[in-house]
Design a protein that fits this description.
Layout lengths: L14 E5 L6 E5 L13 E5 L2 E4 L2 E3 L3 E3 L4 E2 L12 H5 L8 E5 L13 H5 L3 E5 L1 H13 L4 E5 L3
Parallel strand pairs: 8-9, 8-10
Antiparallel strand pairs: 1-2, 3-4, 4-5, 6-7, 6-10
């Protein structure tokens, strides 16, 4: 029992038990509390003023990152210049979620610009670039079909 106000301590690799849904057998599971790096996935490994790094490779232009690839052919250069064509670029990728990193600060595009994505059932989230990088890494680790489009800050 934990005293009021105290933080419970859970040891690394702590075991817990579940019951099998059909036969009711007790199943032990181990809870691992460490970051697992999956080298075959493209993830953000850093960001700074005017750049992001993906799997330790530095990019100083707009990039589109999926679990499988980094694309540098997205023609966007800054947030103010975004058009509907910039958003149409993502339709063929069929992501569940598009994260748009808007640079140093969070900005929002007019919904008319990305209306086709909404109609296709694609969620569009606008975030500052550091937040987009962190959120992308979490979603890709959960095996979600996510695309991050990051503008230089």
């Amino acid at each position: 029992m934990v005293e009021s106000g105290a933080t419970p301590q859970f040891p690394q690799g702590m075991g817990f038990y579940l019951r099998h849904p059909r036969c009711g057998k007790r199943l032990e599971r181990r809870l691992a509390l460490h970051l697992e790096k999956v080298s075959h996935l493209k993830t953000f490994t850093g960001h700074g003023d005017g750049y992001v790094t993906v799997n330790d490779r530095r990019y100083e232009q707009a990039v589109v990152v999926t679990a499988a690839a980094v694309q540098t052919d997205w023609p966007a250069t800054d947030f103010a210049g975004l058009t509907g064509d910039h958003f149409e670029y993502f339709l063929a990728m069929h992501p569940e979620v598009l994260l748009l990193g808007t640079g140093k600060r969070q900005q929002f595009a007019h919904p008319q610009l990305y209306q086709q994505l909404i109609q296709a059932g694609i969620a569009v989230e606008f975030m500052d670039t550091p937040a987009a990088c962190r959120t992308y890494n979490i979603l890709v680790a959960e095996d979600r079909k996510v695309v991050a489009a990051v503008l230089p800050s």
